[in-house]
Amino acid sequence: MKISFHGAARGVTGSCHLVECGGYRVLIDCGLYQGGRELDEENAEDFGFDPASIDFVLLTHAHLDHCGRIPLLCRRGFRGEIVTTSASRDLAQLVMMDSAHLQEEEARYRARRHIHHGHAFSPEPLYTVRDVQDSTRHFGRTASYDTPLALADGVNVTFVDAGHILGSACLLLELREGDRARRVLFSGDLGNAERPFLRSPARPPHADAVVMESTYGDRLHRPLGPSVEEFYAAIEDTIARGGNVVVPTFALERAQELLFFLREGQQQHRLPESLQSFLDSPMAISATEIYERHPECFDREVAAQFSRGQDPFAPQGLHFTRETAESMALNRVSGGAVILAGSGMCTGGRVRHHLRHNLGRSQSSVVFVGFAASGTLARRIIDGAKEVIIYGESVAVRATIHTINGFSAHADQAELLAWHGQTGSPGRTFLVHGEVDVMQKLAARLGSGEVVMPRLHESFDL
Ligand SMILES: [Zn+2]
Q1: What angle do CA 186, 188, 193 make, to 5 degrees?
Q2: 186 pairs with which residues across the strands?
Q3: d(CA 397, CA 114)
Q4: pTM of the model
Q5: What are phi and psi for residue 212, nearest 5 degrees?
Q6: Inter-axis angle of helices 86-116 and 129-136, nearest 10
Q7: Ligand 1 center–CA 211 separation, angstroms
Q8: Contact of 402 with 394, CB cutoff 8 Å
Q9: For residues 329 and 196, what is the distance between their CA atoms, to the nearest angstrom?
Q10: Angle, to 10 degrees, between the axis of helix 282-292 and the axis of helix 86-116?
Q11: Confidence (pLDDT) at 426
Q12: CA angle, corner 293, sides to 287 and 296, nearest 5?
């Protein structure tokens, strides 16, 4: 029995862990490395194992850094079965398809540049839409929470609600090889108990070994309530000034959360019923439609709303703008609109058009509600740039800039420690999905048992 780590090892993206037991090989997640072009090479490198030798892929959730290398795995020979929850399956297919479109676009762009520079060079995309279509054929059984699934002789898995995004799960692997039995628990990404509409992370089962994420292992989140209040206040002030509110939005989870809070704000009379809001992102619109098809994933209150025929993601005055022409028409709206558009870090997508039209207007505002990596347009605006370049043009920043930090989809240090404390004093804990200094701070507080921070491709006996 062995475990090895082929991604998110001393880093936060590219989750990919391999368990071997009784001749079977089970991969837990197969995510993309994210963070800029310099990671293209990391994504294209050898997996560290033969994809054709893998029997099962178990997917914890549909974020790109957990599912984004599945099409590449299939392209390189994987022929086994992918098992996940029904909601994760729908979302992962959307996320992988979006990623393939971006990869193809990027490859075309690079090919044009090379031709421009006189080189005969045709850079291949990491994978294509066709590869994603092929990989969807490998999705097999769907998992229900808390119901053990027999994968193979001596290999059982149970999906447990992780409360992170729709369909997300922690995985308990129950392994048997000869007279040796082991219970290995993977946290996946753990949610934040304060989040709306999803259930809180479920109490984890006991395990001999735990593989735990540590994204926010060194800090405590601000409470959600004041952040939502700040969001409402920013909208009210901007509408009163006659401007628009532009919210750079991640398509998965954050967009649905904002729609949920807009609706709640109207119901609690914190926001006007006449408020006009626009979800200007085809990807976020599709994700929202998937959310609406999975009421089984929600907490009791929101599930009851669905059964009464109410849609918690549909504030009054909401418009979905899927077509480019509809999106362009928004540029003529001079005030009174809340525009949610991707990408969250403003590195691409329609939000850049809205920033070009609104950043220079002192009546408008831009509200950042998510993580912004250094080097991105979002980061420059948050850091107080007086002028930014968008589509090659210089745009003065006169709009009011809000940065609201309480909307995290991840557990903080206290929640990680509490979750780990319920796993029954595991003999060994592997920390993954975190920066090294963050993992060290978390490790120092984990109490009894050995704590390991595996390196890329490092392997351990279980
Ligand atoms: Zn995640």
Answers
A1: 115
A2: 171, 211
A3: 34
A4: 0.93
A5: -125, 140
A6: 160
A7: 15
A8: no
A9: 32
A10: 170
A11: 95
A12: 115
What percent of the chain shows pLDDT beyond 70? 97
Q: Which amino acid is at 56?
A: F
Q: Are 92 and 131 in contact (CB under 8 A)?
A: no
Written as one letter, the residue type at 9 is: A
Read off the tokens for 406.
Answer: 């309480």
Residue with tokens 């009784």: 22
The alpha carbon of 252 and the centre of ligand 1 are apart by a number of angstroms equal to 10
CA of 111 to the centre of ligand 1 (A): 32
Cis, bond preceding 214 (omega within 30 deg of 0): no
Ligand 1 centroid–CA 61 distance in Å is 7
Sorted by sequence, the CB contacts under 8 Å of residue 123 that are 6+ apart come out as 107, 110, 111, 114
Cβ-Cβ contacts under 8 Å for 95 (sequence gap 6 or more): 62, 63, 64, 67, 68, 252
Q: State yes or no: pLDDT of 376 exceeds 90.
A: no
Terminal CA-CA length for the chain: 5
In sequence order, which residues have a C-beta less than 8 Å from that of residue 181 and are 6 or more positions away? 174, 175
Token output for 124: 């291949």
What is d(CA 155, CA 57) in angstroms, rounded to the nearest whole number? Answer: 13
Burial class (CB in 10 A: 0-12, 13-18, 19+), 389: exposed
Q: How many CB atoms lie within 10 A of CB 206?
A: 13
How many whole angstroms from 189 Cα to the centroid of ligand 1?
5
Check whether 37 has a pLDDT greater than 80. Answer: no
State phi, psi for 381 to the nearest 5 degrees.
Answer: -70, -45
Which DSSP string do the residues of 417-459 spell out, in sequence order?
A: HHHHHTS---SEEEEESS-HHHHHHHHTTS-SSEEE-PPTT-E
Put residue 178 in one of left, alpha, beta given phi > 0 → left and psi -120 to 50 → alpha.
left
CA 66 to ligand 1 centroid distance, Å? 7
CA 12/CA 34 separation, integer angstroms: 9
Task: Measure the CA–CA gap between 261 and 230, rounded to whole angstroms.
Answer: 12
**What tens digit of pLDDT does each residue of 148-201 get?**
999 999 999 999 999 999 999 999 999 999 999 999 999 999 999 888 999 999
- For residue 342, the CA-to-ligand 1 centroid distance in Å is 18
Q: Rounded CA gap, 318 and 263, in Å?
A: 9
Q: Which of 274, 263, 192, 239 minimizes the C-alpha distance to 367?
A: 239
